[in-house]
Amino acid sequence: GRMNPERRFMQEALELAKAHAGRTHPNPSVGAVVVRGGQAVGSGGHAGPGSPHAEVVALAEAGDLARGADLYVSLEPCCTFGRTPPCTKAIVDAGVSRVVAAVLDPNPRVNGSGADALREAGLEVLTGFMEEEGVRVDEAYHTFFKKGRPHVHLKWAQSLDGVVQAPGRGYITGEEARRRVHLDRFQSDAILVSSGTIRMDDPFLTVRLECAEKPLVRVILDSPGSLTGREAVFATGPAGGPVWVVVPQGASHPTLESRENVELMRLPKRQEGGFAISDVLRLLREREVMALYVEAVGRLGSSFLESGFVDRLSVPVAPGLCGRDSGLSALEGDVLADGRGLRLPAIAWEQAGADLIATAELEGQCLRG
Ligand code: AOF
Ligand code: ZN
């Protein structure tokens, strides 16, 4: 269909940003297009820390054609020296006359100062153009700075009767729904489970996609101190990504601690057992984990929901019946402190093979409200 050319160029910048999504953190995924006389003359995306920024890639391709051109970029250009020099300088030096940015950079070191620097240099600057779409290409990056914590995606897979472990320990959901899980893992920086899940399922917690590999940080909350070091997650070697084991303050675990890719982290244990979700998220924030994928059921799932820090919930539902005796039910304890339960807002249902996947955008709203 026909699209207004401004939107079309921004859409192109957004697509370039999406192409690298999941690989750029703690940097944002960004795309840029240089337009001269209604024609794209240069384009580029940012590939991650240490790589040139999207604007720099696009300007290099445009060369002299950048003089007097318009630049469409999915994020406000940076104005600070990080691992690379500021984009604002590159844009001004190239002679660009107008910059259109989808959304301001929420990083407090930039946040509006990039746009100001360009205006001061005499460029025309428009920000907030297709803003929602701009946020969506890297929601976790925006959540991280706006809320001061990782974006949290909680997931469990269940049978029609709400059981989360299949009899005989097979998979509950089919291949298509499981592929979706691996795509979601790929978009994350870290995956988090409890040591209970490790004991029950003994998963690898790696990303397994034909076309893409990515080592994820694997976080295991081990408040009972039940890990032995012989679990599958420790056997994948450094290629599977580091494993961070969270244990109660004062606990030690020489077998785990001596492993090359394992790091022990300590948090106070709550009186009622387990760790406070806010403590866990603070720990991960310090490590610059922006996108967190939580595969939790039972008490941990409830704790996350009750904490009010869940941004997205997805639940693949399989057309199978397990019966209660065969396994755990999805949530234990009260999701709401007053036991009222909850009707999820903004839910989408999607078919994946024989399964249905429910996705709700909770955006970290406090469910106790
Ligand atoms: C842009 N375009 O493509 C990206 C931006 O260490 P550096 O030099 O890579 O800078 C990282 C910061 O720059 C990052 O925290 C974010 O504020 C911004 N990222 N900015 O103009 C880009 N990736
Ligand atoms: Zn930059």
Outline the fold blueprint.
Blueprint: H1 5-19, E1 31-36, E2 39-45, H2 54-62, E3 70-73, H3 87-93, E4 98-101, H4 113-120, E5 124-127, H5 131-136, H6 139-147, E6 151-155, E7 158-159, H7 175-186, E8 190-194, H8 195-201, E9 217-221, H9 232-235, E10 243-248, H10 254-257, E11 262-267, H11 277-286, E12 291-295, H12 298-307, E13 312-318, E14 347-352, E15 355-361
Parallel strand pairs: 3-4, 4-5, 6-12, 6-13, 7-13, 8-9, 8-12, 9-10, 10-11
Antiparallel strand pairs: 1-2, 1-3, 13-15, 14-15
Bound molecules: ligand AOF and zinc ion.
Write structural notes for this entry.
With 369 residues, the chain is an alpha/beta fold. 27% of the residues lie in helices and 21% in strands. Strands 6, 7, 8, 9, 10, 11, 12, 13, 14 and 15 form a 10-stranded mixed beta sheet that branches. It has a 5-stranded mixed beta sheet with strand order 2-1-3-4-5, sandwiched between helices. Helix 3 packs parallel to helix 4. The longest helix has 15 residues, at 5-19. The chain is elongated. The mean pLDDT is 92. Bound molecules: ligand AOF and zinc ion. Residues 53, 55, 77-78, 87 line the site of zinc ion.
